[in-house]
Specification:
Layout: E1 7-9, E2 14-16, E3 19-20, E4 26-27, E5 30-36, E6 39-45, E7 48-49, E8 62-63, E9 67-73, E10 76-81, E11 105-109, E12 112-119, E13 123-131, H1 133-136, E14 141-146, E15 159-163
Length: 166
């Protein structure tokens, strides 16, 4: 299923419609983009979802608490739903998750996705945090290392090229 998204390219002064596929149409969600090497990441949380057939009365859809993360590369974006794991030493049988909602606020702060408030047939005033380290990986990317072969010992100089480090 295709979702309607447009990106404005300020360099070329043009609108781009990326290839952007995920579960079902969503609106009133929270989202943000963050530069995680080697590509930007696009986070989408919550919102209302629904599929509307032609000739059927429209409805308000249903609230969701799904979090999707997309790897942004050019015009083709690949994404996945984030599935939370339960810690081995936990007595819980399922992950603790925020209530489904739309119209919430979401920010990114020190590797944490922070979600506040929203609407689920009443205004919510709760706050949730999720550490994204396992989702996004490190904040650096290595593109090449030289020498490519041979022993690397004591005083061997190694040249590492990439982004996110000096």
């Amino acid at each position: 299923m295709r979702s309607d998204m447009w990106i404005y390219n300020v360099t070329d002064n043009e609108w781009i419609e990326p290839e952007f596929m995920y579960d079902i149409p969503r609106w009133n969600h929270a989202d943000f983009m963050y530069a995680y090497p080697p590509h930007w990441k696009y986070f989408v949380f919550g919102g209302s979802t629904g599929i509307f057939e032609e000739g059927v009365d429209r409805n308000l859809g249903s609230f969701t608490n799904k979090l999707h993360v997309f790897d942004v590369e050019g015009d083709n974006w690949t994404g996945k739903e984030v599935k939370l794991e339960i810690a081995e030493d936990s007595t819980d049988t399922k992950p603790i998750m925020p209530q489904a909602r739309d119209s919430c606020k979401m920010i990114f702060f020190e590797n944490q996705v922070v979600v506040f408030g929203g609407w689920n047939n009443k205004w919510l005033s709760d706050m949730w945090c999720l550490n994204t380290s396992k989702i996004t990986g490190p904040k650096y990317a290595i593109y090449s290392i030289t020498p490519k072969r041979g022993p690397v010992t004591g005083k061997t100089k190694v040249n590492i090229k990439g982004v996110g480090f000096k």
